[in-house]
């Protein structure tokens, strides 16, 4: 087992990465303060892993709540199922919520933990690659609103993150690819050698080769932990983690939550950020081709929806609501080079229009 640390002073916490960790009681025991544990999962993950997770909390008063599965249920209405379960079982302020599932369960459970009785502890047990490399670390929690993705939420850090890589054995290939989008992101924003390593190892990663998967998770979690430790509340460098997300979130919301996976939106969205970066004279055509090739190797979409499915004006309206927008100006994470991201609202509007028009038409 490998242990990384998210260094946040007295709120620091470990990320445990290894095989067969899900039922390890000794691992999680120090991070449960009271006697009550509420495990939150969904209709897909619970039949696979709830029994193992319950073993990890043997000896505690363990209750469970099973949510419907899907991004379309990541909303305030479903969130209430968690509060209702906690209240029904008379959970007190010392209780611990446990997120057992992908990023949707992690974000919702974390937000419920942030709000229940003004804040209780929670533990992340991520079971998708995306959640293991990104969403379970860093304390961003929340739900979607019909008018914008992840618009209702809170920063609330977990007590620990338990990554059992064996859970990936049951994960669908499309979901694995979606997770690889966020892995590739770390290389693009701050780690050119990692990007080059991924170019070499993508075929093995797509086949879930265990040693490569573990290395990709460790390197991704280390990148994320470093960024979160230096900018927990996103006043600076943390925004780089949103490469491709301004375009991607608009695709997710515009196409109806659940139709495009988050990682798929990030992939097609990143290609648009890359295209705009090339139009601005920072990336070369060769860089763009390299980045397109790696997403394609990961079986991810590089093109956003067509103009008829997502017209430019709808696209722009959705992006205008992005959390990075300032004074009505859409701000993007762009690349100076592979491994070097920056945030800007200072770009010619016609280059954004050109990106929205040309990339879908010509790629
Ligand atoms: P998800 O949670 O919807 O999981 C994907 C699918 O895989 C679901 O159907 C789920 O039930 C299923 N599943 C989960 N684990 C499984 C397993 N081991 N075996 C078989 N099936 C399994 O999607 P996701 O990609 O994990 O997460 C996407 C969400 O994460 C989005 O809502 C996104 O906004 C959020 N996110 C948050 C952050 C953050 O920092 N908080 C970062 C990135 C993404
Ligand atoms: N996934 C973006 C962040 O954690 O900041």
UniProtKB/TrEMBL annotation:
<feature type="binding site">
    <location>
        <begin position="69"/>
        <end position="74"/>
    </location>
    <ligand>
        <name>NAD(+)</name>
    </ligand>
</feature>
<keyword id="KW-0028">Amino-acid biosynthesis</keyword>
<protein>
    <recommendedName>
        <fullName>3-dehydroquinate synthase</fullName>
        <ecNumber>4.2.3.4</ecNumber>
    </recommendedName>
</protein>
<keyword id="KW-0170">Cobalt</keyword>
<dbReference type="GO" id="GO:0009073">
    <property type="term" value="P:aromatic amino acid family biosynthetic process"/>
</dbReference>
<dbReference type="InterPro" id="IPR030963">
    <property type="entry name" value="DHQ_synth_fam"/>
</dbReference>
<feature type="binding site">
    <location>
        <position position="182"/>
    </location>
    <ligand>
        <name>Zn(2+)</name>
    </ligand>
</feature>
<feature type="binding site">
    <location>
        <position position="245"/>
    </location>
    <ligand>
        <name>Zn(2+)</name>
    </ligand>
</feature>
<feature type="binding site">
    <location>
        <begin position="103"/>
        <end position="107"/>
    </location>
    <ligand>
        <name>NAD(+)</name>
    </ligand>
</feature>
<dbReference type="InterPro" id="IPR016037">
    <property type="entry name" value="DHQ_synth_AroB"/>
</dbReference>
<keyword id="KW-0862">Zinc</keyword>
<comment type="function">
    <text>Catalyzes the conversion of 3-deoxy-D-arabino-heptulosonate 7-phosphate (DAHP) to dehydroquinate (DHQ).</text>
</comment>
<dbReference type="GO" id="GO:0000166">
    <property type="term" value="F:nucleotide binding"/>
</dbReference>
<keyword id="KW-0963">Cytoplasm</keyword>
<dbReference type="Pfam" id="PF24621">
    <property type="entry name" value="DHQS_C"/>
</dbReference>
<dbReference type="Pfam" id="PF01761">
    <property type="entry name" value="DHQ_synthase"/>
</dbReference>
<feature type="domain" description="3-dehydroquinate synthase N-terminal">
    <location>
        <begin position="65"/>
        <end position="177"/>
    </location>
</feature>
<comment type="pathway">
    <text>Metabolic intermediate biosynthesis; chorismate biosynthesis; chorismate from D-erythrose 4-phosphate and phosphoenolpyruvate: step 2/7.</text>
</comment>
<dbReference type="InterPro" id="IPR050071">
    <property type="entry name" value="Dehydroquinate_synthase"/>
</dbReference>
<keyword id="KW-0479">Metal-binding</keyword>
<feature type="binding site">
    <location>
        <position position="140"/>
    </location>
    <ligand>
        <name>NAD(+)</name>
    </ligand>
</feature>
<keyword id="KW-0547">Nucleotide-binding</keyword>
<feature type="binding site">
    <location>
        <position position="262"/>
    </location>
    <ligand>
        <name>Zn(2+)</name>
    </ligand>
</feature>
<comment type="similarity">
    <text>Belongs to the sugar phosphate cyclases superfamily. Dehydroquinate synthase family.</text>
</comment>
<feature type="binding site">
    <location>
        <position position="149"/>
    </location>
    <ligand>
        <name>NAD(+)</name>
    </ligand>
</feature>
<feature type="binding site">
    <location>
        <begin position="127"/>
        <end position="128"/>
    </location>
    <ligand>
        <name>NAD(+)</name>
    </ligand>
</feature>
<dbReference type="InterPro" id="IPR056179">
    <property type="entry name" value="DHQS_C"/>
</dbReference>
<keyword id="KW-0456">Lyase</keyword>
<keyword id="KW-0057">Aromatic amino acid biosynthesis</keyword>
<dbReference type="GO" id="GO:0009423">
    <property type="term" value="P:chorismate biosynthetic process"/>
</dbReference>
<dbReference type="GO" id="GO:0005737">
    <property type="term" value="C:cytoplasm"/>
</dbReference>
<dbReference type="GO" id="GO:0003856">
    <property type="term" value="F:3-dehydroquinate synthase activity"/>
</dbReference>
<dbReference type="GO" id="GO:0046872">
    <property type="term" value="F:metal ion binding"/>
</dbReference>
<dbReference type="GO" id="GO:0008652">
    <property type="term" value="P:amino acid biosynthetic process"/>
</dbReference>
<feature type="binding site">
    <location>
        <begin position="167"/>
        <end position="170"/>
    </location>
    <ligand>
        <name>NAD(+)</name>
    </ligand>
</feature>
<dbReference type="InterPro" id="IPR030960">
    <property type="entry name" value="DHQS/DOIS_N"/>
</dbReference>
<keyword id="KW-0520">NAD</keyword>
<feature type="domain" description="3-dehydroquinate synthase C-terminal">
    <location>
        <begin position="179"/>
        <end position="325"/>
    </location>
</feature>
């Amino acid at each position: 087992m490998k242990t990384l640390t998210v260094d946040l002073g007295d709120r620091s916490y470990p990320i445990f990465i290894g095989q067969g960790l899900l039922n390890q009681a000794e691992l999680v025991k120090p991070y449960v303060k009271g006697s009550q544990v509420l495990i939150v999962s969904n209709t897909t993950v619970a039949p696979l892993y709830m029994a193992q997770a319950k073993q990890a909390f043997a000896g505690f008063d363990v209750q469970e709540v099973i949510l419907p599965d899907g991004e379309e249920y990541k909303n305030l209405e479903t969130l209430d199922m968690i509060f209702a379960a906690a209240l029904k079982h008379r959970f007190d302020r010392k209780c611990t919520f446990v997120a057992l599932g992908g990023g949707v369960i992690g974000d919702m459970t974390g937000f419920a933990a942030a709000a229940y009785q003004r804040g209780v502890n929670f533990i992340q047990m991520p079971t998708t690659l995306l959640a293991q490399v990104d969403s379970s670390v860093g304390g961003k929690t929340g739900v979607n609103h019909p008018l914008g993705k992840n618009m209702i939420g809170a920063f609330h850090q977990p007590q620990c993150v338990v990554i059992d890589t064996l859970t990936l054995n049951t994960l669908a290939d499309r979901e694995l690819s979606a997770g690889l989008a966020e892995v590739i992101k770390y290389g693009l924003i701050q780690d050119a050698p990692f990007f080059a390593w991924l170019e070499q190892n993508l075929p093995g990663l797509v086949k879930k080769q265990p040693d490569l998967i573990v290395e990709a998770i460790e390197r991704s979690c280390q990148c994320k932990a470093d960024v979160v430790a230096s900018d927990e509340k996103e006043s600076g460098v943390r925004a780089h983690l949103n490469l491709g997300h301004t375009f991607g979130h608009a695709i997710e919301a515009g196409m109806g939550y659940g139709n495009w996976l988050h990682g798929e939106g990030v992939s097609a969205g990143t290609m648009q950020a890359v295209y705009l970066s090339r139009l601005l004279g920072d990336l070369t055509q060769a860089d763009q081709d390299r980045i397109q090739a790696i997403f394609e190797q990961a079986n991810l979409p590089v093109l956003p929806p067509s103009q008829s499915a997502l017209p430019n004006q709808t696209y722009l309206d959705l992006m205008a609501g992005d959390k990075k927008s300032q004074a009505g100006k859409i701000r993007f994470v762009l690349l100076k080079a592979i491994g070097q991201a920056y945030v800007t609202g200072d770009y010619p509007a016609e280059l954004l229009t050109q990106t929205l028009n040309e990339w879908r038409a010509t790629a």
